[in-house]
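Issue 218. Parser rejects a valid record. Input:
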Amino acid sequence: MPVSPAYRPDPRFIALGPDYADPVQAADFPQTILRVRNDRAAASVGLETLTDEEWIAHFGRFQPLPGQPAPAAMRYHGHQFRTYNPEIGDGRGFLAAQLRETPQAASLREGGDRENENARLLDLGTKGSGQTPWSRHADGRLTLKGGVREVLAAAMLESLGVPTCRILSLIETGEALERHDEPSPTRSAVMVRLSHSHIRFGTFQRAAYYGRKDQIEVLLEHARSLYHPSVAAGDAPGFLAAVVEVSARLTAKWISAGFVHGVLNTDNLNVTGESFDYGPWRFLPHYEPGFTAAYFDNSGLYAFARQPEAVFWNLTQLAGCLKLIADSEPQVAALTEALNGFGPAYIRHLRAAFLNRLGVKSLGEAADQRLLDTTLALLRQGGEALRWEPLFFDWFGGFSSGARALGGVRAKTYQGETFDAFRFALLEHEPDRPERLERPMFASAEPEEMLIDEVEALWSAIEQGDDWAPLNAKLARLDAARSAWAL
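Output the parser choked on:
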């Protein structure tokens, strides 16, 4: 039996037809060397029982899984650094499968339970799987370094409770790739990610670009029924409000994690509020609002502190698409109202995200806002001496962690008026699940971070000596951190 009894194929998007995707074939790679296999993610969709040989057959040579059609490259457009591009789509990837998460996985997820109807529809999407009609003369490949970086980004974000795709598989493919922006030739790979959805804002934009109201209506019903079923059929403002809410939550989680996505184009945001497609990402070394991840982001458009603005701008583009099917002035007004809900939702989620990261319970809007403000002020003052991630590590569990923090390696940064304000605000809040502090991770002096020097060191071990042990050890530590934080 190649898959477990919990495996349930459900190829909904592919069933939409040729207006939304094109059938494609994966490249025939000279090698298929399994490098990363995420069995915990695989178990959530009933694929953990695959042998390595079967795994490579499905995720390196892309033989369709049982009950799945041939791969399909998705059609979409997008604003790239706010310039509209109608020539993009899945240029080096495709939708390989859609399947339901297992009831057990649903029960462990926030908001999930053991009823089958609450088991989410999940996508297996590829990157580096070869050319498609949307490759625009590119080779459709992924560098091995790019794949390793995506594995690390997703693992770190998941450990910090950020809604993210999970990297299911990374297979080295034995080709020498030429790239203008990194040393070449460089090694190649094909990656498979497990995501809640690949319906991008840009998927709607393509239909709007061609004036296809019928396609927008079909997409609306598809996305509403599968991802936001509490929204009534045909309720475009209600759907937009739901997307605004999950997008605000995602953005707040990025900020609390000190994460900079780097390329917040409309084709890199989806309707489920789950981040994916990690290119030039970074985590903040310390508080720096203007910190950018992409070397080509010369204007700082997608800098750390501008990410809420970027997400809101992208939501306005989605709203513009939905406006095409609004059949009355009240519906247009309702779309505007839904869009304007982003700011309040973002602030609400940001307070919750910072409390979550500090491991304390809500005390009400005023007290929670005071803790958010004083935390940011302390991070700003602490700068390089404090860094971003260590503050949350030191003070996790509230002021009951004071002895650990004040006796630790950053004790000298925890003094002065700014710290006193933070301490008072934190002292107000009751610890949330303080038993988490008993995990071995909190006995360490330092938290798990994901700064660029470590990322480069992990890659260097692979590039220079084909040594995968440091990467595997880092992934194991991040999984332990995920369990310890329990965010």
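Fixed in the parser; the record now loads. DSSP finds 16 helices and 13 strands in the chain.
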